[in-house]
């Protein structure tokens, strides 16, 4: 079955995050429609021109269904084939943004995204797998993204090993109790 | 490299001046011990960032990085591990030997059930595996599909979905596990299970129906329900309505009352998109959409109007009840919604409402972007052709927007619209020309000016006061750039040639052009002055109604330029077929209506033609022209002469069989060519010496011996999934057009081959494969023809050779079916949208035109009456200059 068929699970063609100048923060393309880097940047440029002024939530663009949201200084786009169900994609978009909000502590903006790029990458990976919607439950998505190795400087090594030890011990006790 | 970040110091520090080679250097840290998780995670992030910015990694670079990343499996850090998986997935398509990490991944998959990254490991594993390795990891995947943890189960299901395209057979074996997963507590898991289950069962109609009935209630995931709705619609679309399907439709209709909007919309949309939907079935769907139109939520309004807009192309009458609500959307703040609303109204509007609507549009036009305006212009063009009486108002409107600001594409759309109106409504010419003259006075687009000047030259001399245009055209010669001056010179000359009274005066003007600074202008002027001096040349110029087939000329020239050997000799124009201008015009019109139809089916909904260059144009290339080119490349077939017409592809096998074969019938002046498109769907066998044996199975004609097999062009080798063509040629006397049924047999030598290496065994054995019978019917001898005015053509041919026959089509259960079968049997083209019939109508007149083999025009009118007790009664009247053709066609109904 070709990837465009509405009968397959493939529903998202691309997920793009642009900044307020229309420059790419990151983008994931799941189809071959915009193959070269050139085509992609052209597409993003035009798309941004179309969408920067009015927050319309969704438009048709170049035969594609485009769902977008402007949050502070970032523009998040979900691109899909026109045979897709826009309500389903809007629902997905909401859960993705909710998950981002949870992970970035309600600070979805360019600086925070750049600082937590790994978290955003993991978040997208937990939402979409090659264009298939993996999950649409924001809490579930965010819970699957593990926190950073050392969460900045807020938690130092000894503290972490202490928590680690604490959890380990708790697990041990729980197990021995259950036996 | 990533210069875009340079000037902003607020960005994340590490992505400033990020550079691939530095990052690859840094990646050496992966080899250090002990591993520093924080640092490594940062480097991985940088790699992913580069990939997400389309940075190209060479295979060697990627492979090296990939293997140093595998070192990180030693670290127990969860977050780092997730990043490792993500990077592995991203690099797997570039790096080599990625399979090497399989064991590390399998280890993670088998770790304790609390491990969060088990799901990630499964997805990464399926991404790096290839179809030959699949068997060895099958066990883990089957286990994972039924895992208690929904994310693990989902990961396995989604990965299997990806793998299905690579190795169907293995994935099909997991159906029981998938079935179990569909009861998972995870909502998304349910969705994935349903999707995969359908993928496995998709070609087994009964199994799909059973699946639908099983799951039509009791699912919890709305996404899963949406998929279910799509499957139902697919089944309903494929089959005639029988007992089973009725039940399915009821399920579908039941979803219209679901409490989740997403499912309601999916159901409504599916009903609207169904091919043979009746207005009774449409009614509840349209009502559901109507409720969404007034919703405060933008996506709901957008979804509803988009669907109604699409529906308006096929069933405008079904939407009329929503018109009031749609009119309110014209002022919607989302301009996409407003545009959809306008174009929908333009489709559904009747003559009376047009005036009011046009007023609203004028206000609206200034507020929207160019590409929306183009859609509106297209809609207005269609409307104008539908209601010719309104042309003055429409032209006025088009002229007024032509004066406004706008880019090239927009202006082009307007000019195109005016051109079309001029072509189909001759009375509008004078008005339109004066608007166009005014436009070129101040036109910044050279291309448009040239086209307009050409049109003025071609058609201007035919209006009542042609001299009025001379001034406009000559002004261009004074004021414009050389391209436009050249075009204007030609236009002037055409006036002079066609209107002898003006000749002397125009000569004066042309003489002035001889002084032009541009050589092209001077050349044209002197050429035309010479023609004008010679009455004989003038006559020749006027009566020359022929032109070259432009598409063909273009492709031949392209071929000539690309092929070194061809270029050694001069280009031979005599090979290009010559067609009359009328033919060219009708061809253009046909392409245009076809494009419009395509837009209608797909892109009209898309708020803009999907970049016309890319998709639309390539698809317009006539399949017949393509066939002709393919066959001309084969000397034996080229000898048959010019292709007259080609049928559509008839499948001769089911789609899921070992060998998939379809046939296209090509009619030549004295031959019939059967083109068999064959595809081998078995990856472990190769067919050699593939030929088709055709035999006449039945005929209703005693002269059938006149049809003699000539030769067969077999295919030497049919590899897996590489379609090849086989031709069988029959000789046919010119006037002889039999209806025959052929039996077809595929003969070949089959050899085993290794699917992975492609090695072919030397030993093979002969085998045959029975194909379905192939019918050659009268309709195959008729080429489509396109005329603008049916009545005129009907009267022109006259009733001298008219043949009238009456038939009872007892098998037809509706007018719609009768129409499609008549069209198919006669092979003729319906005119004036007469193939569209209202659902409840009991009578209908179908108007058809065509060209019978030998180039004989034929035209037919089929009047039908439907009564539920007797079926459809058909009165078929055929006219043609040749009596025999009328008789053949009128007897073609069976």
Give your account of this protein's structure.
Chain A: Oligomeric complex that consists of at least the alpha, beta, beta', gamma, delta, epsilon and zeta subunits. Chain A: Keywords: Cytoplasm, Cytoplasmic vesicle, ER-Golgi transport, Golgi apparatus, Membrane, Protein transport, Transport. Chain A: Belongs to the adaptor complexes small subunit family. The complex is a heterodimer of chains A (179) and B (894). Chain A has 179 residues and is α+β, with helices and mostly antiparallel strands. Chain A has two domains: 131 residues, Beta-Lactamase (2-Layer Sandwich), CATH 3.30.450; 26 residues. Chain A has a five-stranded antiparallel beta sheet with strand order 2-1-5-4-3, with helices on both faces. Chain A has a two-stranded antiparallel sheet with strand order 6-7. Chain B is α+β, with helices and mostly antiparallel strands. In chain B, the strands form four sheets. In chain B, strands 3, 4, 5, 6, 8 and 10 form a six-stranded antiparallel beta sheet that branches. In chain B, strands 14, 15, 16, 17, 18 and 19 form a six-stranded antiparallel beta sheet that branches. Among the domains of chain B are: 96 residues, no CATH class; 104 residues, Leucine-rich Repeat Variant (Alpha Horseshoe); 76 residues, no CATH class; 153 residues, Coatomer, gamma subunit, appendage domain (Immunoglobulin-like); 109 residues, TATA-Binding Protein. Chain B is 52% helix and 15% strand. The longest helix of chain B has 21 residues. In chain B, helix 6 packs parallel to helix 8, helix 16 packs antiparallel against helix 17 and helix 22 runs parallel beside helix 24. Chain B starts with 19 loop residues before the first helix and ends with a helix. At the A-B interface, strand 2, helix 1, strand 3, helix 2 and helix 3 of A face helix 2, helix 4, helix 6, helix 8 and helix 11 of B.
């Amino acid at each position: 079955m070709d990837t465009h068929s509405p009968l397959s699970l493939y529903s998202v063609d691309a997920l793009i995050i642009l900044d307020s100048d229309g420059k790419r923060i990151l983008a994931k393309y799941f189809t071959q429609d915009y193959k070269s880097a050139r085509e992609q940047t052209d597409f993003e440029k035009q798309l941004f021109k179309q969408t920067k002024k009015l927050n319309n939530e969704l438009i048709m663009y170049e035969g594609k269904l485009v769902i977008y949201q402007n949050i502070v200084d970032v523009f998040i786009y979900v691109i899909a084939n026109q045979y897709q169900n826009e309500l389903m994609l809007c629902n997905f978009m909401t859960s993705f943004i909710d998950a981002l909000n949870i992970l970035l502590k309600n600070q979805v903006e360019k600086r925070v995204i750049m600082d937590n790029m790994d978290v955003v990458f993991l978040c997208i990976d937990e939402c979409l797998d090659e264009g298939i919607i993996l999950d649409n439950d924001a809490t579930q998505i965010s819970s699957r993204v593990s926190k950073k190795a050392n969460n900045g400087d807020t938690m130092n090594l000894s503290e972490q090993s202490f928590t680690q030890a604490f959890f380990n011990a708790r697990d041990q006790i729980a197990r021995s109790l259950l036996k | 490299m990533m210069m875009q970040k340079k000037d902003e110091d607020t960005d994340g520090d590490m992505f400033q001046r990020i550079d691939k080679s530095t990052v690859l250097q840094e990646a050496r840290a992966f080899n250090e011990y002990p591993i520093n998780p924080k640092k490594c995670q940062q480097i991985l992030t940088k790699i992913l960032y580069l990939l997400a910015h389309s940075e190209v990694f060479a295979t060697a670079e990627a492979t090296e990085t990939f293997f140093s990343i595998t070192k990180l499996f030693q670290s127990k850090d969860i977050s780092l591990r997730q990043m490792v998986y993500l990077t592995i997935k991203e690099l797997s398509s570039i790096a080599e030997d990625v399979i090497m990490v399989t064991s590390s991944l399998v280890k993670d998959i088998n770790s304790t059930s609390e491990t969060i990254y088990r799901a990630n490991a499964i997805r990464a594993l399926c991404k790096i595996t290839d179809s030959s390795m699949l068997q060895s990891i099958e066990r883990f995947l089957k286990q994972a599909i039924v895992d208690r943890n929904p994310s693990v189960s989902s990961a396995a299901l989604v990965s299997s979905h990806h793998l299905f395209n690579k190795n169907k057979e293995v994935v099909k074996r997991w159906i029981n596990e998938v079935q179990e997963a569909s009861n998972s507590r995870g909502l998304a898991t349910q969705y994935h299970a349903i999707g995969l289950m359908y993928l496995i069962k998709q070609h087994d109609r009964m199994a799909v129906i059973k699946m639908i009935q099983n799951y039509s209630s009791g699912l919890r995931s709305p996404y899963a329900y949406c998929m279910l709705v799509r499957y139902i619609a697919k089944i309903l679309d494929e089959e005639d309505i029988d007992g089973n399907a009725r039940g399915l439709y009821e399920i579908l209709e039941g979803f219209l009352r679901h409490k989740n909007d997403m499912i309601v919309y999916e159901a409504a949309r599916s009903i609207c998109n169904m091919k043979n939907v009746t207005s009774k079935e449409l009614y509840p769907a349209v009502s559901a959409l109507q409720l969404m139109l007034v919703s405060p939520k933008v996506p709901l309004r957008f979804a509803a109007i988009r669907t109604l807009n699409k529906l308006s192309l096929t069933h405008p009458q079904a939407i009329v009840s929503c018109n009031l609500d749609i009119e309110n959307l014209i002022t919607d703040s989302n301009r996409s919604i407003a545009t959809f609303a306008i174009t929908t109204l333009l489709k559904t509007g009747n003559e009376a409402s047009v005036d009011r609507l046009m007023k609203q549009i004028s206000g609206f036009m200034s507020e929207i972007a160019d590409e929306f305006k183009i859609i509106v212009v297209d809609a207005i063009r269609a409307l104008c052709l539908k209601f010719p009486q309104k042309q003055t108002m429409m032209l006025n409107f088009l002229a007024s927007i032509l004066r406004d600001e706008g880019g090239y594409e927009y202006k082009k759309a307007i000019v195109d619209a005016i051109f079309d109106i001029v072509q189909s409504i001759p009375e509008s010419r004078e008005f339109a020309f004066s608007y166009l003259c005014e436009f070129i006075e101040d036109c910044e687009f050279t291309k448009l000016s040239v086209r307009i000047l050409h049109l003025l030259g071609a058609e201007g001399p035919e209006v009542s006061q042609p001299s009025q245009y001379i001034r406009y055209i000559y002004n261009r010669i004074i004021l414009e750039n050389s391209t436009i001056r050249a075009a204007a010179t030609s236009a002037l000359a055409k006036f002079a040639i066609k209107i002898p009274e003006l000749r002397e005066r125009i000569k004066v003007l042309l003489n002035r052009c001889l002084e032009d600074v541009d050589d092209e202008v001077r050349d044209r002027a002197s050429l035309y002055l010479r023609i004008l001096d010679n009455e004989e040349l003038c006559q020749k110029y006027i009566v020359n109604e022929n032109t070259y087939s432009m598409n063909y000329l273009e492709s031949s020239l392209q071929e000539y330029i690309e092929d070194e050997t061809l270029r050694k000799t001069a280009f031979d124009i005599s090979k290009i077929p010559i067609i009359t201008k009328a033919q060219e015009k009708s061809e253009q019109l046909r392409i245009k209506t076809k494009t419009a139809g395509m837009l209608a089916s797909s892109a009209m909904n898309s708020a803009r033609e999907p970049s016309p260059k890319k998709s639309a144009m390539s698809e317009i290339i006539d399949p017949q022209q393509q066939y002709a080119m393919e066959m001309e490349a084969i000397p034996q077939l080229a000898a048959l002469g010019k292709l007259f017409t080609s049928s559509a592809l008839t499948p001769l096998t089911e789609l899921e069989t070992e060998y998939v074969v379809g046939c296209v019938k090509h009619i030549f002046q004295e031959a019939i060519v059967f083109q068999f498109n064959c595809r081998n769907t078995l990856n472990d066998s190769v067919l050699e010496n593939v030929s088709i044996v055709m035999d006449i199975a039945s005929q209703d004609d005693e002269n059938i011996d006149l049809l003699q097999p000539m030769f067969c062009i077999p295919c030497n080798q049919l590899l897996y999934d590489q379609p090849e063509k086989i031709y069988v040629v029959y000789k046919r006397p010119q006037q002889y057009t039999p209806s025959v049924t052929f039996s077809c047999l595929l003969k070949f030598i089959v050899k085993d081959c290794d699917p992975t290496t492609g090695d072919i065994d030397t030993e093979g054995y002969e085998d045959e494969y029975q194909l379905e019978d192939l019918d050659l019917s009268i309709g195959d001898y008729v080429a489509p023809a396109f005329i603008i005015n049916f009545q005129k053509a009907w009267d022109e041919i006259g009733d001298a050779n008219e043949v009238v026959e009456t038939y009872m089509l007892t098998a037809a259960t509706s007018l719609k079916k009768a129409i499609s079968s008549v069209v198919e049997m006669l092979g003729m083209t319906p005119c004036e949208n007469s193939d569209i019939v209202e659902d409840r109508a009991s009578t209908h007149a179908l108007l058809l035109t065509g060209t019978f083999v030998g180039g004989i025009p034929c035209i037919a009118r089929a009047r039908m009456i439907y009564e539920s007790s007797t079926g459809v009664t058909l009165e078929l009247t055929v006219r043609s200059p040749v009596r025999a053709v009328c008789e053949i066609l009128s007897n073609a109904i069976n």
